[in-house]
Amino acid sequence: MSTLLSFAIPFALGCYALASVLVLFRLVRGPRAQDRVFALDLLYFHAILVVMVIGMSHQSDHYFEIALAITLFGFVSTLAMAKFILRGEVIE
Length: 92
Prior knowledge:
membrane; transmembrane helix
C-alpha cells in the first residue's frame, strides 16, 4: 500500500464518521418524516462507503459484496418507507 493511501484511508473514515454523526442528528431531530427517510438513506450510503474503504485497505473482494448487499437492502427499505409515507400502507 502506498504512503498516500495509508494516510487517505483513516482520513476518509474519519470524514465518514463525522458525516454520519451529523446525519444521525438529522435523523433524530428531523422536523418531518421525509427528512428522517432521507437521513436514513444517507446512513446506508455512508455504511456502503465505509465498507468499501475498509475493503480497499484490506485488499479483499468480500467487502465489496457486503457493500452490494447493503445497497440492495437500503434501496428496498427506502422505497418501502417512501411508499408508507405517501399512501399509509406498504403492501397493497
